[in-house]
Amino acid sequence: MAETHPPFRKNTAHQAQRSGPWLSLVLVALSLLMIAPFVWMALTSFKTLSESSDPEWMPGAFRWGNYPEVFKIIPFLRFAANSLVIAGWVTVLQVFTSALAAFSFARLEWPGRDRVFFLYLATMMLPGLVTLIPTFQLMVRMDMVDTYLGLVLPAAFGAFGTFLLRQFMLGIPRALDEAAEIDGASKWQIFWDVILPLSRPGLVTLAIFTFMGNFQSFFWPLVMMKTVDKFPLPVGLMFFDTERGQATHLLMAAVTMSVVPLIIIFVLLQKQLIRGIQLGGVKG
Amino acid sequence: MSGLGKRGSPRRRLVSGIAFLLPNILGFAAFTLVPLVMSFGIAFTDWDTLRHNIFRHETLRFVGFENFSWLFHHPDFLHYLGNTFFLMLGLPFAIAGSLGAALLLTRVSHRPVARRGAFIFATLFLTGSGLLLRMGGMSQVGVWFIFGVLAAVSLVAGVLTGGSVYRTLFYLPNFTAGVATFVLWKKLYNPSGPINAALGPVLDGFASVVRSAPDLFSWGVPLACGVVAAALTLWQLWRLRQHWDDATAGPVSVVSGLLMLAVPVGLQLHWLGLSAVTAVGGPLGVVLIGAVLILKRPRRWGPVCARDAGLSAEIALALGLVPLLTLLAVGVTWGSRLPALAAVGLPAPNWLGDYDWAKPAIMIMGLWAAIGSNNMILYLAGLSNIPPELYEAADMDGASPLQRFWHITWPQLAPVTFFIGVMGVIYGLQGGFEMARVMTKGGPAGSTTTLSYFIYIEGFETGRLGYASAAAWVLFALVFILSLLNFRFGNRSAND
Question: Which of A276, B155, B180, B448 is positioned for an S-S bond with A205, CB 3.0–4.6 A?
Answer without folding.
Answer: A276
